[in-house]
Amino acid sequence: MTIKVNPEQAQQQFAQLLSQVLQGEEIVIVVEGQQMARLTPCAVTQPATSSSTSNERIPGLDQGRFVVPDDFDDPLPPDLMKVFEGED
Fold it and tell me: Are the CB atoms for 38 and 17 separated by under 8 Å?
């Protein structure tokens, strides 16, 4: 569930809102009807142990946030290639 608050409410109720975020809620700060900021929980991290030094990746976490264009791996235009190759 998303909870919408104004900046004043966010300041006054920060500890309570943070507690709700830690329980999985999403807080959106709204100014004059416009969403200005979003408070969401960070990826769950486990305390570091001597046997693990990095966090595991979560497949699909950012799915849909970026689309690779169809021409991503097409050759660069000749004029741009000249710049990369140091030609005038």
Answer: no
Residue 25: CB partners within 8 Å, gap ≥ 6? 1, 2, 3
pTM of the complete model beyond 0.70: no
Nearest to 27 by CA among 46, 13, 47: 13
* Distance from C-alpha of 35 to C-alpha of 28, rounded to nearest angstrom: 7
Q: Which domains does the chain have, with CATH numbers?
A: 1-43 (3.40.1620)
Provide the greatest CA pair distance for the chain. 61
CA–CA dist 27, 34 (Å, integer): 14
Dist. CA 56–CA 46, nearest whole Å: 9
Ordered mean pLDDT values, 10 residues apiece, the chain (88 residues) = 92 93 90 92 59 68 86 92 86
